[in-house]
Each structure stands twice: as structure tokens, then as C-alpha cells.
Amino acid sequence: MRRYKRIPKKSARKKLIDDCLNLIRLQMKNEYGNFCQLCGKPQKDLSMPLSLFHILPRSLHPKLILCKENLLLACWIKEKYYYMKAPTCHNIWEHQKFFKNGALNPKWVAVENKIKELRGKDYKEKLLIQEKIMPKITMFYLSCFYEGLKRVWRN
After folding, report:
1. 71 in Cβ contact with 130 (< 8 Å)
2. pLDDT tens, 91-121?
3. pLDDT > 90 in the chain, percent
4. Backbone torsions φ then ψ of 16, nearest 5 degrees
5. Largest pairwise CA distance in the chain
6. Which residues contact 104 (CB under 8 A, 6 or more apart)?
7. Rounded to an integer, what distance in angstroms lies between the CA atom of residue 122 and that of residue 43?
């Protein structure tokens, strides 16, 4: 008899964060159009929907998860067996900044330049300052933030 692993259920906090990010994604699509902000491809030319890309990673900067200045609309690729967490138009993860021979990855440099063009040359410093003044993301904060986003979205 074959045993299947149970898929863990999302916590209420994760669900609320996902709901907030979905509303932010819809707002950004309305503001910037249905295009990848990094490569400029329209949604109709892509096999997958546009997703949110965190400029500074969620794992290292959890207070910036819902910060609009830290988010970009980007296209994603589907690998053969799993969804890869790397957009088609860019790979900006730190471990991919350099090749094994020590040379800079030109794709990484191109994405870094595009982000500087979109957010300004000192975007990292601005985001790090914003992270310091952001409140801790509690359930109360998330629920208030989500209700505020819903009200803005309705109007």
C-alpha cells in the first residue's frame, strides 16, 4: 500500500499574506499594465501569469513582504518537473551573481540595471531605511492592511 504525504495546510497568517499580495498584484497590474516590468513582455505572450517579484528577498527582509516599493511584476517560467523560483527575464539571486569562474553573470547585471532604472540608483538604501521604519507584521496589522486594500480596490 502506498502512503502519501499530507500537504500541510497554510496557516491563517500565510493565507492573509497571500490575499494581500494578490490584491497588491491586481493593483500593480492596473497601475503598470499587464506587462512584465523587467523585460516588457505582455501577459498574452507568456505561458504563465505575471507574478510578484520581491527585489529584496522575503526571507532576509520579512518586513518588506507587503511593501510596494519592494515589488515588481515579473514573468515566471515552468521547469519540466517543478516551478522554478526564478523569473524568465531575470535571475537575481545572490548565488547566481557570479559564475563558477568568478565572472559576473551578465543577466544579473542587466536585471540590476533595470531595477535601478525603475526604482532609482539608491533603491537598496531606500528599501533598507523603509524596513527600519516598518512595523512588525502581526496578525492585527495584516488584517487591517487587508481590509484597507479591499476598500481601496472597491473604489
Report:
1. no
2. 444 445 666 666 776 777 777 888 899 899 9
3. 34
4. -65, -40
5. 58
6. 97, 98
7. 29
Q: Please give the single-letter amino acid code of residue 108.
A: W
CA distances from 38 to 8, 41, 102, 105, 131 (A): 33, 8, 25, 17, 23
C-alpha cell read off for 56: 529584496
How far apart are the C-alpha atoms of 122 and 74, rounded to whole Å?
21
DSSP string, the chain: ----PPPPPPPHHHHHHHHHHHHHHHHHHHHH-SB-TTT--BGGG-SS--EEEESS-TTT-GGGTT-GGGEEEE-EEE-SSSEEEEETT----GGGSB-TTSPBPHHHHHHHHHHHHHH-TTHHHHHHHHHHHSPP--HHHHHHHHHHHHHHHH-
Contact 16, 146 (CB under 8 A): yes
94 is written with which cell numbers?
545572490
Q: Take residue 104 and report the three cell numbers written for it.
A: 559576473
Supply 3's cell numbers.
502512503
pTM: 0.78
